[in-house]
Amino acid sequence: MKKLFKFTPPSGLKSRGRGKQKNKACPQCPKRSFCRRGFTLVETLVAISIFTVSILGIMSVLASGISHANYAKQKMTASYLAQEGIEYIRNMRDTNVLYSVNGGWNGFRDATIISITPPAPSDAGFTRTIQKTVINPDEVKIFSKVEWTQGSGVKSVTFSENLFNWAP
Fold it and tell me: What is the pTM of this model?
């Protein structure tokens, strides 16, 4: 006798036939076969190289940020030292004029720069130089320059101010 049709069970029922059984972990592989669904060596090496390049990029950005922060710190310290040099000279001018010490304004204007240079900065690595230029008999221009070494070069900050004979 010939079969007229093939019986297929409804979707909710399991077939009890002897067909190929599937592996539950990997439905594409037979039950007893070894499933090879991992990463290959090339894929692993590519992933590691991408990860390494991204970490190196982050590290270079961090190193650059630390370097720039250190430069900003040194420049701020140098600015304070340059301003301190200007204030020291201004204080000497005021003392000379108010108390008629060392010849008053004329003594301050005509003094050599060595006699009015403030003490060296207490911060190691910084050097301060003061320069004075006489503009006219009642005006003097003061330059305060602070230098320091950072990295492969010498950096500097220069402040200037005009001081006047304010006493008649």
Answer: 0.66
Both tokens assigned to 110: 């005509």
Reference 117, options 142, 156, 75, 89; nearest CA is: 89
CB atoms within 10 A of CB 155: 14
3 pLDDT band (50/70/90 cuts)?
A: low
Predicted confidence at residue 60, as pLDDT, reads 95
Report the run of H or E that residue 66 belongs to, with start and end: helix 41-99
User: 117 near 132, Cβ under 8 Å?
Assistant: no
Give the residue from 36, 41, 123, 47 showing the smallest Cα distance to 78.
Answer: 123
Rounded CA gap, 111 and 129, in Å?
16
Both tokens of 132, joined, read 């004075």
